Amino acid sequence: MIEVGGYSIALANWMLIVVLMVPVLIIVLLIMAVLAARRSAHSAAPLAHQMGVLGHHVQQLSLGQAQLQGGVQTVSDTQANAQTQVIQTVEARLAMVQQQMTDRLAENALKSANSLAEMQERMQQTLHGSSKQTTSSLTQLQERLAAIDKAQDNITKLSGDVLSLQDILSNKQTRGAFGEIQLTDIVGKALPTDSFTLQTTLSNGKRADCLIKLPNPPGPIVIDSKFPLDAYEALRNAKTDYDMKVAVARFKTDVKKHISDISEKYIIEGETADGALMFLPSEAVYAELHANFPELVRAGFDARVWIVSPTTCMATLNTMRAILKDARMKEQAGAIRATLKHLHRDMELVVERVDKLNTHFGQARKDLEGISTAAERAGKRAARLDNFDFEELEDVPTNVVPLNQPEL
Fold first, then answer.
1. With 70 as the cut, is the pLDDT of residue 102 above it?
2. Which domain holds residue 66?
3. What is the pLDDT of residue 168?
4. Which of 7, 152, 164, 317 could staple 190 via S-S, CB 3.0–4.6 A?
């Protein structure tokens, strides 16, 4: 291949172009020679000589052309053979590459099929596991929803109970009954049933919510349930200073009135103790009273009325229970002494009978020792008889009965 001006020309084509250009060149030279002959007539001889030389050159050129044609033919044959070999080599390589590509495609297809099968199996396992997990999650969700529904029912019931409690606390009579029920429950858990009475009428005609039968001193003590809820709610809901002032005054008035009523109604000299308890069914009211109204607590102390909440009431009742237990122990002291005396006599009888039994055991032990001694002597005699050699006897006494052989 030969590149000329950016164009590639095969060697055979190039040789052909050279062969074709030679006659053209000769004609051009002849024309130039004729023109030169016309111009220079006087130079004919040199021209003839040049023509002869030119003819000689033309002849050599013809020979070269023939040689060139043979070389071109040889080059063409060589090029054809080379092209054939190249084509065969390329075809062989293409076949080899195609075979390799086919093998690789088959191998890749097999790998893809295996990978797809493994992926499908993993997906099935994943889907199966996800299905189980989803089923379990749905089951747990259903259980939680059932628990939520149950909790919702409990909340609904609790809301109804709260509303009922609000209805109870909104009425003074029902609020008083609520306090009495709570007081009854606390007293019933803390004290024996025979140590208190409920709704007892005193000598002055007043009815006490609960009368604890304590011994003298201090004597029976009254517990009365009071619940100044209206004044407390007004105190908690006050928004302005004026409302707060009015609510504080109302709260003080109500509590003082309760203290005064309990002191006048339930402290009777010679019949009850010299003090009484005012039971507040709300820990919040009790805390508010002791936190912000200590003067009311001191007023109760002055009137011998002690204010208690459900918690402090239980503690107070446990103290009363200890007092009742001590009093009953003192009442039963005589019976305890008599019982101890009988117990002491019973212990003396047990000691006497143990001594007699020990005597009998001693006699039985002596008898057992005698039996053991006799048995030991009999054993020794039996051993001597067992070691006696009867073959040393030569004469059998006449009074010995011979042993006969048993009949078979």
1. yes
2. 1-36+55-72
3. 43
4. 317
